[in-house]
Amino acid sequence: MHFVIMGCGRVGSTLARTLGRAGHDVAVIDSEASAFRRLGTEFEGQTVTGIGFDRDTLVAAGIKEAYAFAAVSSGDNSNILAARVARETFGVEHVAARIYDPQRAMVYQRLGIPTVATVRWTSDQMIQRLLPQGAMPELTDPSGKIVIAEVPLAPAWIGRPLSAVEEQTGGRVAYVTRLGEGAIPTPGMVVQQGDLVHLSVRRDELARVERICDQPPAPV
Q1: Domain boundary among 97, 121, 145
Q2: Where is the RCK C-terminal domain (predicted)?
Q3: Which of 30, 118, 152, 175 is 20 to 30 A from 192 (CA-CA)?
């Protein structure tokens, strides 16, 4: 798959190298050509010097063919603007933005763009929001058999009840992160845009659950 990353600081370069080692095509955008030195000599992806929210720059980086876009520059405004251009102009479905201000991140979540605030940042968390079947265990019981994992849902799940997620996966919704805050599921609660759903499942069932959640829900 093709990934476009805006920003080649420590975060962006780590993302690019990680995705590249996993066999993906990667294009990195930065306004300073010298920043690409962070990628190292083994990086085989594309580098594009320019402004990350400029349409011509994004096209040069292959945004029209991109599976996902990550905005991880040092500026909140630049990141959210670039993320919105990638999603709204070029139709990139998997978009994530790094936001320094957690309060502003909550506002951007309402726009349907997953954000990662600096206080909870790791490159693994950003990759989790970009890759398909990106569930990552957050808690494991002492036996190692049961996990609570954040499991990405396909957009078609929006508007469907959380009970449908449980019925079709066989898991249990432990909690939902909505607009940056945790919420305990209530009867009749439905999936909203931007929700992060955390499921309790058997570890050996996690891959199957990921595949179900990555597809539109089965007809009722």
Answers
A1: 121
A2: 134-215
A3: 118
